Amino acid sequence: MSVGRGSTGAQASAGAQGAAGITYTKVDDSYFEARRLKRYARVWSLWALGVGAVVSGHYSGWNLGLAQGYGSMLFATIIIATMYLGLTFSLAEMSPALPHTGGAYSFARTAMGPWAGYITGIAENIEFVLTPAVIVFFISSYLSAIFGTAPEFQPVYWVLSYALFVGLNIVGVELSFKVTVTVTVMALAVLVAFYLSVLFSGQLDFSRWALNIGADGAELPKGGGPFLPFGIKGIFMTMPFAVWLFLAIEQLPLAAEESHDPQNDMPKGIIAGIMTLIVSAFLVTFLNTSIAPGAAGLAKSGEPLLDGFRTIFGSDIAKILAAIAVIGLIASFHTIIFAFGRQIYSLSRAGYFPRFLSITHGSRKTPHVALIAGAVIGLVVMLIIWFAVGAEAGANVIGGTLLNMAVAGAMLAYFMQGMSYITLKKKFPHINRPYKSPFGNAGAVVCMIIAAITLYFQFTDPVFQVGVLGVAVYYAVMMAYFLIWGRHKLILSPEEEFALTKGESEYKSH
């Protein structure tokens, strides 16, 4: 696929943008020729891409929120699920109307201009680069359980995992999507097997295990504790961890230029994906917590699903169970690597990031430079935290810090996407919308409010303030880059041309 070079109207609009401090650089056909993508995905692939990106959050990560008690986890999950319904249905309307690889950046750029587009793009960049880092941390926890390796060995697992799955994404989009579908179905099958095992094990005891945290935070040996041991505040403190049950399904619009029919398939894939995840989210939070070691034990665990399997089947087959459980983490790790590759590619192709990052592989047409760059950044952040806190630090410190950094980026991106939806409805009522959200502006507003509240409570948690402040520092650096350099080097990519012509000029494919 190649894109349009820019119409006369677009060039004129580009010149007008100079008054706002934005300058476009003309490029020839060879620029886009070196940045081609291939169309492959259909509904089934898109569903797998969305669910696969999230499913690891049902294996590890969410459980850290149980430190505030099961009741806090339940209500936080309800609130966050509501936020994601508002977000995903808004995306289901916007993505086929603006079917570009830019996704969230593209929506904000069209609705509110290049600065808003860049701010949104950076937020999503933080989310998609750091989310695989969280997942690979939990992968290393599972692999350590399988092979009995010391904590100091974990960075080796990180490097090997990145090398393998970045390589798979570079090999080709066909293989990437085939692997995505396969591992996503396998990951869901493992979860279903776990749910059925708990239900028929005879060990489910909600009061004994799910309510084993007292009002002082101590573990209650016989359970029967308060439903909300820390009151209403505990719900808000748990919300960032409930996000992990749904985080990254919003990556689906990034596959728009690799979808055969984004106008019809994208809404179906997004809606089917969020419904699948909502059902699984409520099952895992209830069933995993209602057996030993219960809420108190799982709140400190790096492999909660494995802990549940051990309870049911015993420790003798723990290594086999760990190998099975790691499938879900692999599914998300693989699919979000796809996401950060496309996200970096789209911002680079438009000139917001250095242009060399958007060059695609000569024969395979995959954004190999962006994929490698995203992996390197994620690894560097992990190693900085690892060396800062020490190899012996548990999941609460390393995994929790990375998780909160990723969630902070996501919350800002969600707020901006909700605003983009509302602004697009007002300023661009004429663009073709193959699908319309049944929740309309109300769904977008609810999404924005919940995202803002979640981000606020992340700042109030002293354990994770350093991580969230790290996100703020990265933002400051990237905004300085755009102010000094990037805003003078923009390119009329499909996203930019669509925005400058107010949706009247579509990119061409052949």
From TrEMBL:
Alphabetized GO MF terms: transmembrane transporter activity
List the subcellular locations: Cell membrane
Membrane-related topology note: Multi-pass membrane protein
- Any transmembrane segments, and where? 43-61, 73-92, 128-150, 156-173, 180-200, 230-249, 270-297, 317-340, 369-389, 395-416, 437-457, 463-484
Q: Which is a Gene Ontology cellular component entry for this protein? A: plasma membrane
Q: Look up keyword Repressor and say if it applies.
A: no
**Main location per UniProt?**
membrane
Q: What keywords appear on the UniProt entry? A: Cell membrane, Membrane, Transmembrane, Transmembrane helix
* PANTHER family linked: AMINO ACID TRANSPORTER-RELATED (PTHR42770), MEMBRANE PROTEIN (PTHR42770:SF7)
Q: How is this protein named in the record? A: Amino acid permease
